[in-house]
Amino acid sequence: MSFTLTEKILRDHLVDGRYEAGKEIGIRIDQTLTQDATGTMAYLQFESMGLSKVETELSVSYVDHNTVQVGFENADDHRYLQTIAGRYGIHFSRPGNGICHQVHLERFGRPGKTLLGSDSHTPTCGGLAMIAIGAGGLDVAVAMGGGAYYMTCPKVIKVNLEGKLPDWVTAKDVILKVLEELSTKGNVGCVCEYGGDGVRDLTVPERATITNMGAETGVTTSLFPSDEETRKFLAAQERKDQWTPLEADENADYDRVMDIDLSDLEPLMAAPHSPGKIVPVSDLEGTAVDQVMIGSCTNSSYVDLMTVAGMLRGRSLVPGVSLGVAPGSRQVLMMIAENGALSDLLSFGARILESACGFCIGNSMSPKTDSVSIRTSNRNFKGRSGTPSANVYLASPAVAAAAALKGEITDPRNLNMEFPRVKMPERFKIDDSMIIPPLPAEERLKISIYRGPNIGAPPANDPMPEDFKGKIAIKVEDYVTTDHIMPAGSRLKYRSNVPKYSEFVFEPLDPDFSRRATEQRDRGIHNVVVAGVSYGQGSSREHAALCPMYLGVKAVIAKSIERIHAANLVNFGIVPFTFVAESDYDFLKRDDELEISGFRAAIEDGDEVIEALDRTTGRRVLLKTDLSERQRKILIAGGLLPYTVRKNM
Ligand code: MIC
Ligand code: SF4
């Protein structure tokens, strides 16, 4: 038998179900990661499971999202996370140590292992031949407790890379090309596996740029083989004993093969307001630029920043542009500080930001009204930068630096400059002093867990009602992202306080939603969300399910729902329905009363099609469910937490 690399790693970790594409399987998780914005809830949920320590090979808690610390909330959360890590045997990466995905790649990722992270860009570590998956915090909490992670056994797409990248064309352009081919929808339940001769010349950080932004296609994860480049990277991180070669069998069967000749690629950009809106940079040349932001978990590696420094050295920033640079980790920052590149960036006029998410999530350096901002990050959803009227273009560090040099979008091939080809260092600077390792058992028990006033226990949900008597509380269009459902930016600091954060559900689309939903919930009405295509794109934030649950949402009816969000809805007892006939979307209106008699029984019996009656219009609408037996039980219990607690009783 020949296997894909994906199948090899998954089969190696299979603990439940049969390996058959499209069916639900349970896999063992070796490593977990959390970040602070999703982590507080994940650890509150972990605590409620009553275990004495994590059961994984390695669990790391990072603080990288909410590092702004305006007010006490963030600092309280950080201390809670630090004490929880101490108590339960978890590594703690302190604020300032870097973005979770960058640091995990540098210090912890290992070929052949599974990693579950409460952040949608966890697939970054697929660059190290791991099966690295983003999930909601509750799924990660269960995995930390030693429970299996349930997922759809994937279809595997082979992305066959041939040739060599020309000057000025980089890993970011490879993933933008993949996004052009695959788009941001329709890839749920697939994995992208990279192979071909072109892979050999891509370093691990370059591979990680590609697997990171693979998240934007909606695939479960992306991964590269473990080869000589992987060995070099691990050796340069003083971890060469952790290397093991891994690749797909030669005759492995793929569900789809995509060929990309790297030599044919050109610099690309994702235009506003979607990572899937791919345009050649040459088509946009001359567009005036107000801001350039370099960093994020996609493009903030040592090579990325050295390329930028090489282009900007000895030159200066044009007056109309503001430039921000956020090195991805303390390792990167220290290395560019020691070799002088940091000083080159400062002389050029760059503003240096903390090694954290910062601008990427819209909690700092929001651009001016109606501006054009060029960013090396992975998402340009409308308003995500913190400025609703801004036009954000996503590009490689080289294209971003060219814009900072010229004040307009510029194809770097027209700069009349030699491409500063930077090699991956043979040795990275190793200093793990900002990572607090787990303590011995007797020390762990002495740690008292700090809980500031911003930390509130996750609210409980009721078991599923017998009949559904609801009202459409909101009707939204296609491509509604989790940034629309549960805005981050300046609202992020309320992540650990569900009643407060719930005041902002759907704020960018309908600021009155929370009030209306609360009022209906209090009258015993089950709230319903009606949505278009690809509902819940983007982040893994489970608050986009948890807060609607708190507001009494019991069902989402959409044309299609993205993977992580659909799983989060189930985890919080909200039924994810799709339309049998998409045209029914047009007939449903806000405030229509919806009824499903025998709701609970239908879910219990595994009915795949359920009829709802719109009492306002008298119309009958057929709704589809695609739920495993396990998911149906979770829904009946009112969510994964009550289900897990009940199962363990
Ligand atoms: C994002 O990039 O949108 C985030 C912020 O990293 C999220 C996680 C979160 O909402 O905390 C993600 O990608 O999952
Ligand atoms: Fe942080 Fe941005 Fe990466 Fe999300 S996408 S983890 S906000 S850097």
3D architecture notes:
By secondary structure, the protein is an alpha/beta fold. It is built from 23 helices and 27 strands. It is globular. Alpha-methylisocitric acid binds at residues 37-38, 65, 119-121, 134, 361, 488, 538-541.
- Please compute the radius of gyration using only Cα atoms: 24 Å
Shape: globular
Mean pLDDT: 96
**What fraction of the residues are assigned to beta strands by DSSP?**
15-25%
Name the bound molecules: alpha-methylisocitric acid, iron/sulfur cluster
Helicity range of the residues?
25-40%
In whole angstroms, the N-to-C terminal distance is: 42 Å
Low-confidence blocks of residues: none
Number of strands: 27
User: Strand arrangement, largest sheet?
Assistant: 21-22-23-24-27-26-25
- DSSP helical segment count: 23
Structural class: alpha/beta
Largest beta-sheet details: 7 strands, mixed, barrel
What's the structural blueprint in terms of helices and strands?
Layout: H1 5-13, E1 14-16, E2 24-27, E3 31-35, H2 36-47, E4 58-62, H3 73-88, E5 91-93, H4 100-107, E6 114-117, E7 131-134, H5 137-144, E8 149-152, E9 155-162, H6 171-182, E10 190-195, H7 204-213, E11 221-223, H8 228-236, E12 256-261, E13 268-270, E14 278-280, H9 281-284, E15 291-294, H10 302-312, E16 322-325, H11 330-338, H12 341-348, E17 351-352, E18 372-375, E19 391-394, H13 397-406, E20 435-436, H14 441-444, E21 468-475, H15 482-485, H16 498-501, H17 513-522, E22 526-531, H18 543-550, E23 553-558, H19 563-571, E24 575-579, H20 584-587, E25 593-596, H21 599-605, E26 609-614, E27 620-624, H22 629-637, H23 640-648
Parallel strand pairs: 3-4, 3-6, 4-5, 6-7, 9-10, 9-12, 10-11, 15-16, 15-18, 16-17, 18-19, 21-22, 22-23, 23-24
Antiparallel strand pairs: 1-2, 2-8, 5-20, 13-14, 21-25, 24-27, 25-26, 26-27
Bound molecules: alpha-methylisocitric acid and iron/sulfur cluster (SF4).
